[in-house]
Amino acid sequence: MHAYRTHTCADLTSQNVGETVRLSGWVHRIRDHGGVLFIDLRDHYGITQVLCDPDSPVFDAVEKVRSEWCIRIDGEVKARDASLINPKLPTGEIEVFVRDMEVLGAAEELPLIVFGDQEYPEETRLRYRYLDLRREAMQRNMTLRSDVVASIRKRMWDSGFREYQTPIITASSPEGARDFLVPSRLHPGKFYALPQAPQQFKQLIMVSGFDKYFQIAPCFRDEDPRADRSPTDFYQLDMEMSFVSQQDVFDTIQPVMQGVFEEFGGGRKVDAEWPQISYRDSALWYGTDKPDLRNPIKMQIVSEHFRGSGFAIFAKLLEQEGTEIRAIPAPTGGSRKFCDRMNAFAQKEGLPGMGYIFWREGENGMEAAGPLAKNIGPERTEAIRQQLDLGVGDAAFFLGGKPSSFETVAGKARVVIGNELGLTDENRFAFAWIVDFPMYEADEETGAVDFSHNPFSMPQGGMDALQGDPLNVLGYQYDLACNGYELVSGAIRNHKPEIMFKAFELAGYGEDEVRKRFGGMVNAFRFGAPPHGGCAAGIDRMVMLLADTANIREIIMFPMNQRAEDLMMNAPSDPTSDQLMELHLRVIPQDD
Fold this sequence. Notes:
Number of strands: 24
Strand order of the largest sheet: 6-9-10-24-23-22-19-12
């Protein structure tokens, strides 16, 4: 007999009745029924009920067992009485009578209970992550993650891609976040960087003639944490292709992503139509570049209905350059109570409030109500209603000013309205490509122009596009949004040195600096670089959506906390004096 088990805790059925078996696992739950001890024995695969009564030679030893002890048992498989069968368990038809037991690992008093769904502070869960991971939900999440990665790999191989590995220790590169720097012992005073992404290397793979590359790539960014973002590292499906257009990339990655979501989405609908929405339209309609299309609400510009109107706040606002009024339609939201609640929401978000109009049945038919309706009059109110295609029982909310001042709040309000009014289809994955990103943006205070997205993207129109106003230049850059999250980001790359130098020049980087920072790639492009493009899909966020959680730490095996600390391994930690001397470094104490 095997030293630890003949079967897993999910294997035994009525076919095994009468057999002598050996199982190993953790004590999930103990029940004492009048001197008969029932133990739910758990391993990674499932649960088997084992029992022990005073006739067992190891009854006294079994009495001492406590939750989460790791034990081995030998016993005889017995059929349960028909009334005691548990249809929820694969092993629910049988139980094992214990004849022998060995304690493989005793457990002290537990800082968190594995059995059940008790909530614990995140600090406790992360400090004792190895216990937290024993819980059923966490086992399910980590298994899901592993299965998703395996599925992605198979789908990429089936699409003609091969997986290649790129360096983990490399040079610093501006990818939009801070690098993690690694001091060099052999080159005092110089530093490597952990890659924010394999961006340059995957482009060099295309220059090397490999045509189709992918990698499940670890990426490292020193970022401020959010619920949907790790503060240190994450994994992405990284891919690149030669001789492709933007549409070719879309046509390649959609079957992979759609197939994964259909396979692991738990029966939720996966949209087959993925609209392509310009960055400008996405900001206007949804207030974000990662819209949740499960929510049907589209915002609209309604400035003309307020220009010169009796609502002085909006009328005067529209006299200023660059301002507009946007409406957020709210079908079925036509009650003063709901409107007041949304107005309070806007105030909590830092705005003075949101104007609103709602439509109801009046003495003479449909009438508009609310302060705005009284100020602008029935003709303008009716024109707004018709433009927004609203009716009795509906409402509309209004925000005004320069879009940059209210767009984010408008986007959040759209989400809240959709959720509270039950307009958002929760049982669905809705995808959209966001395209035509601006290549550059201007600092609001200094006016300085810098890249707004990936600096290695090809501008639409090539060199000719870079001769005018940089703020009008669009890039072949694209994101894939799903249910309000950015899942994929990519671009057709700038593979021509002369266009690259000009693009960086407009952002304030001289040719010498470009050669210094990206010399490897610039030099490679001198020797017959093919047109190429690709994208990267965030595996952590994909699994987060599939697991139906809004917290990315629920699907990462050993995540950092919100302060980028590993409470279990005590990282970051203080270096020793010897380590600092070897690296020619000195730590300057910080004032408290």
